[in-house]
Amino acid sequence: MRFALTDDQLALGSVVNDVCAQLFADGAVREARDDGGALRAKAWSTLVELDLVGLLVPEELGGAGGSVTDACVVAEVLGKHLAPVPYVGTAIAAAAMLRYAGPEQDALSGLARGEAFSVLLGRHLEEPAAEAQVAFDWTDGARGVLLDPDGRVRVVDLPGTTLLDDIDPLHPLGRIRPVPAIGALEDGARRARAIAWTGAAALLTGLAAGALDQAVEYARQREQYGRPIGSFQAVQHLCADMLVDVETSRSIVHGASWTVQHAPVEEAERVASAAKSHAGAAAVRTCESAIQVLGGIGVTLEHDAHLRLRTAHLHQAAFGGADAPLLLLAARALERT
Amino acid sequence: MDLRDSPEEARFRARLRTWLAENVPDEPEPTRLADRWPLTLDFQRRLYQGGWVALTYPVEVGGQGLGVMEEAILSEELGRANAPTVLPLSHLARPLYTLGTEEQKRRYLPALLAATEIWCQGFSEPMAGSDLASLRTRAVREGDEWVLSGHKIWTSYGVFSDYCLLLARTDPGEKAHRGISAFIVPLDSPGVTVRAIVLANGDEEFAEVYLDDVRVPHDNLLGRPGDGWQVAMEVINHERGAVDTGYLPKFDRYLTELAAAVKEQQTPVDRATLRALGEAAASLEVLRMHCLRTLSDRASGVLSGPESSVDKLLMTAVEQKLTQVSMALLTDTTGAHRARWFDRYLYGRAASIYGGSSQIQRNILAQRRLGLPR
Ligand SMILES: Cc1cc2nc3c(=O)[nH]c(=O)nc-3n(C[C@H](O)[C@H](O)[C@H](O)COP(=O)(O)OP(=O)(O)OC[C@H]3O[C@@H](n4cnc5c(N)ncnc54)[C@H](O)[C@@H]3O)c2cc1C
Fold it and tell me: Which of A270, A330, A337 shows the shortest C-beta gap to B274?
């Protein structure tokens, strides 16, 4: 048993970190809100070139044949930098469905080449009960990935999709013409859902880590009453709680990233549920606290603190709502006897 | 990252499962400490004889000479087997092991680990709680002896103990933590008075210890004069983890018992309560993974100390969430479980006080991990 990330995974994280630092320098993400998708497209093609989009696609299909842990390492760094790319939606959630509920080989190859895919969800971002209505993290021209009423993964074209006016401009939602679709029932689809939850949790962990960094840096510099605000215990304790949220999220995400790929599906679901619900709540709390530490500047349009909070809420709700993992865990706990 | 057992780990786990199947008692564990204590000791001694205690300590001092991941397996399997609570005292062995002389290790460690001699931790005082470094108990050297006088409080298991690992001020001239030393004090020494303090749940779990010119030989000094703070940190860093304290399997058992109680009560559970139960179950999974990470980091030597405050805050959150949700779940006053779970819930309130309160853990993280200014 070895819990730590490998040296390769640490190196992967630091490469992605460097790439993001370049791509998103000087508040580029804030401007991405109304650049017509230019930064998103540029960042995505960089990730495709680096073989990171096809990380979960097997090598024989043109992917990088990486592990879920690798993908989570990437997602966490992207979250920290608030990268406006559909990494969780496409490179993790859609890829996992195409692979584990399929495989849909052609689509997987296309995904690794950078073709756009969007997981289709219900209008509350839940798993569809009978019909999908929303394309998650929509890119123009994307094809939709869903489970058809027989439980098979299917790829559909989405003509006539329009943008919804929702909370997160960095990860748009598409309003699609309703398509028949259901939630995960078979083992493969259930595993894919567990992977999607874990991927979202990894991104959420990164969002929280970035918020913590911002808050701590600010708390060290900003002075009031003649001293740094970081010397006030009330501010210190906010930051300490953020740290606990970040570190514990990291622990469960790393553990889940291995479990969802290698453990029996029941265990995969249980641990992924814990990852998604814990990291989701932790990220929202942490992004809220960061705004508190920043004071007035934290609630301005020009600061990116609100963008973090937006992306955190969206990913906490994605693939089943914030409740689904909690209800799954509660049901499993009550079955324990 | 590979959470599979290695072949040796798998063999260890298989042996352990067989042993647990034969040795875990069927009867549920009594809630009252007085009823539980003899059973706890009995199980602890059996664990020791079975070779399942102090896994990472060398064989010469009563350990098993194994790796830290075996500790994780032990925690997991104790939980799965619904084993009784283990005696949460092994963190007291740490400084004996790292700072003790060969003679001290040989004399004290095996019996401590085997639970044939019970130890307690004499750190806190009436005027020195969070601010431990302000402690006033004094030790004065007289020839080959030290003479101790003072007053300790909140000494867990004090009434059951044979020895106390006690902090006293040996250099009144030195400031705060620099003048403190650690002593091994036999509680049957003349001048020692131990008085029970009753916890809110009725248990006589902790005690006051009065020291009235108590004489101990110089050989009972642990480390050098002035090493007391280091001893305290060694103890406290390990007291803050859910593996060292055996709390991980305990919480696992809590969740299993809670599910059984809910089933027996046959009352439908509303969505808000289900969500709270889900949060409690999630926090337990988080704790499990976080413990694996901590053990893994400990094995590779990358821990520096202050991060144990994350472990402590997490462990506290799990216990408090689990016991809080029990009150929301167990609403049937004609059922058999409410009073028992209320006691656990009350005990859970202590989790954010002992071993350094949650506020103190946050101070440590803010100043020593995040580098925020004092
Ligand atoms: C069940 C239990 C078992 C225990 N077992 C042992 C034992 O075996 N051996 C032993 O030596 N001790 C033991 N203790 C004592 C424990 O370590 C102390 O209770 C603890 O350190 C707090 O000290 P105090 O009770 O004096 O509270 P105080 O230090 O007076 O604290 C009171 C309140 O003030 C807050 N506070 C204090 N200082 C600060 C600060 N700087 N910043 C912010 N908030 C602050 C605290 O967080 C707390 O909320 C035990 C305690 C309990 C409850």
Answer: A330
Q: Which of B286, B309, B322, B360 to mutate to test the interface with A (most CBs of A within 10 A)?
A: B286
User: Using CA atoms, how far apart are residues A198 and B207, in angstroms rounded to an integer?
Assistant: 46
pLDDT of B180-216, one tens digit each?
Answer: 999 999 999 999 999 999 999 899 999 999 999 999 9
Does any domain span residue B294? yes
Told to judge if B264 belongs to the known catalytic residues of this protein, a careful annotator would answer no
Please answer yes or no on whether A337 and B9 come within 8 Å at the CB atom.
no
- Residue type for position B65: G
Strand partners, A224: A227
Check if the beta carbon of residue B289 is closer than 8 Å to that of residue A247. Answer: no
Range of the domain at B348: 240-369
Q: What is the mean pLDDT of residues A234-254?
A: 98
Indicate whether B214 and B270 sit together in one domain.
no
Residue that the structure tokens 């779940």 belong to: B329
Within 10 angstroms of residue B197's Cβ, the number of other Cβ atoms is 15
Question: Do residues B263 and A333 touch, judged by C-beta distance below 8 A?
Answer: no
pLDDT (mean) for B272-290: 95
> What residue in A sits closest to B255 (Cα-Cα)?
A333
Chain A neighbors of B72, CB-CB under 8 A: 1
**In total, how many domains does chain B have?**
3
Q: Which of B202, B226, B250 is the last residue of a domain?
A: B226
CB pairs under 8 A between A and B: 186
**What pTM, to 2 d.p., does this model score?**
0.96
Annotated catalytic residue, options B204, B239, B307, B319: B239
**Cα–Cα distance between B283 and A275 in angstroms, integer?**
9
Whether residue B94 is contained in a domain is answered as no
* Cβ atoms A291, A308 nearer than 8 A: no
**Nearest-CA residue for atom 29 of ligand 1:** B130
Residue B55, domain CATH? 1.10.540.10
CB atoms within 10 A of CB A141: 12
User: A188-336, which class in CATH?
Assistant: mainly alpha
Site to substitute for ligand 1 among B183, B206, B357, B360, most atoms within 8 A of C-beta: B357
Question: Which residue has the CA at smallest separation from atom 38 of ligand 1?
Answer: B130
